[in-house]
Amino acid sequence: MVTFAVRSTDVGERTATGIRKAAGNDAVHVGPLDLADRTLTAAFTNARSGSLHWRLFRPLSLGRPDPLPHLSG
After folding, report:
1. pLDDT exceeds 80 at position 72
2. Segment 29-52, tens digit of pLDDT
3. Inter-residue contact 25 to 1 (CB < 8 Å)
4. Quick one: the chain helix, strand, coil %, rounded to 5?
5. 47: which residues sit within 8 A by CB, 6+ positions away?
6. How far is CA 54 from CA 3, 4, 24, 34, 45, in A?
7. This prediction's pTM
């Protein structure tokens, strides 16, 4: 299972939908997370089970390369 921690669940869900289709796997989930909000951070971590592996992507609005270019468009 993969869970994307996102500020915008709308954008995260669109990305997750593309990944589900491309991978043929429905085990891709989206969870709201803002590291500046301790309540939201606690809710996110408490809702998960098993180990957490983090990978942080910079927002595309900062002009950085798209981390998943094959899903753009």
Report:
1. no
2. 898 988 899 998 888 888 877 776
3. no
4. 40, 15, 45
5. 31
6. 10, 9, 23, 14, 12
7. 0.61
